[in-house]
Amino acid sequence: MNLTHPGVGGTGLLLDVSKLPKEEAEKFQRSLEQREYSSYTSSLIPLQRSLPDIRLKGCHSLYTDLNLPETSVIIIFYNEHWSVVLRTIHSIMDNTPPHLIKEVILVDDASTDEVLKEPLEEYVSRFRKVQLLRAESRQDSRSFKIVKIHEWGKRKSLLIPTLTFPNLFFTWSSMSEEEWKKRTRETDPVRSPAMVGCVIAVSRSWFKKLGMFDPGLEIWGGENTELSIKTWLCGGGLEIIPCSNVAHMYHPHRPSEESDIRYKRNIARVSNVWLDKYKHYTDNCDGSIADYGDISDRIALRDSLKCHPFEFI
Question: Which are the contacts of 184, defined by CB distance < 8 A and separation ≥ 6?
């Protein structure tokens, strides 16, 4: 294919499929259908490659190796392509000062691809700090897969995640004038009402105090909503850190009817525990579409933490 250092420096690799041999073009197309991204292209990029430091000017002195905490990195995946999983591991291990990484935990959410079984175990065994954990059945998957974050700069068009009714799904909204005036530098953190959920950093002790994710939530959807709301109601806060740059790859698929019902079930759990009288503005708040199950333990958690009522927000 006459490729020279594909993906070097974090650059993208674009293939002209019309110039590929027929068999290779078919492989390319199959990879799109199977993964909803081109795993074919991913396989052409080295697992280890140099990456540029794209942080804002000022981040280098604001955050140094000496004033950052040791971190556990958790990556949840399900039937992810081999090259994507391994490149993510290498990217973390090769671009992070070793003393900042306590461990990298790979959580396999019951993948069925054979290459992610023994071959993956054998590969990751070379990394002393990498652990591989497996679920026997699909769990409440929150995939921290590594679309590029908004470019941060001196503009008032910076976007932050907010939640919308009736489905409590996040959307991107402009920062308020009040919040904008609080910032003196483009590197200053930004308070955010909600979070996307795909990539988060949180204190282990605070996460446990908040009851972690609701174990009653199924597969995907609602976990970021629950964690966002209870963080603000129970004495914490959410911030977007402009000096933190993490890429996340979204799958463009639309939810099936089954997954849509599951999402409505999850949202009903969240709204009935945390939204008080405002729960009536959400889908399935009465469980008429899908039974949201027993929430007594979640209500007990809220009571024990002495959290504020939702109108406090």
Answer: none
How many structural domains are present in the chain?
Answer: 3
Alpha carbons 56 and 295: distance in angstroms, whole number: 43
Amino acid (1-letter code) at residue 272? N
Residue 51 lies in a domain: no
Domain boundary among 94, 117, 134: 134
Q: 284 phi and psi, to 5 degrees?
A: 60, 25
From residue 71, how far is each of 99, 124, 204, 223, 290 by CA, in Å? 9, 19, 10, 22, 38
Check whether residue 33 and residue 163 sit in a common domain: no
Query: Taking a C-beta distance cutoff of 8 angstroms, is the pair 87, 54 a contact?
Result: no
Residue-wise pLDDT tens digits, 71-110: 999 998 888 899 999 999 999 998 888 999 999 999 998 8
H-type alpha helices, 96-194: 118-124, 177-182
CATH code, domain with 202: 3.90.550.10
pLDDT in tens, 244-261: 877 777 666 655 566 788
Q: What percent of the chain has pLDDT above 90?
A: 35
Q: Which domain covers residue 301, as residue numbers?
A: 159-246+254-312
Same domain, 178 and 275: yes
pLDDT at 146 over 60: no
Q: How confident is the model at residue 236 (pLDDT cuts 50, 70, 90)?
A: very high
Q: Within this chain, do residues 264 and 305 fall inside the same structural domain, yes or no?
A: yes
* Packing angle, helices 296-305 and 223-233, rounded to 10: 30
Maximum separation of any 2 CA atoms in the chain, in Å:
64
**Locate tokens 């204190």: which residue?**
203
Query: Between 223-233 and 257-274, two packed helices, what is the crossing angle to 10 degrees?
Result: 10
The string of pLDDT tens digits covering residues 26-63 is 999 998 888 888 888 999 999 998 888 888 888 888 88
What pTM was estimated for this model as a whole? 0.78
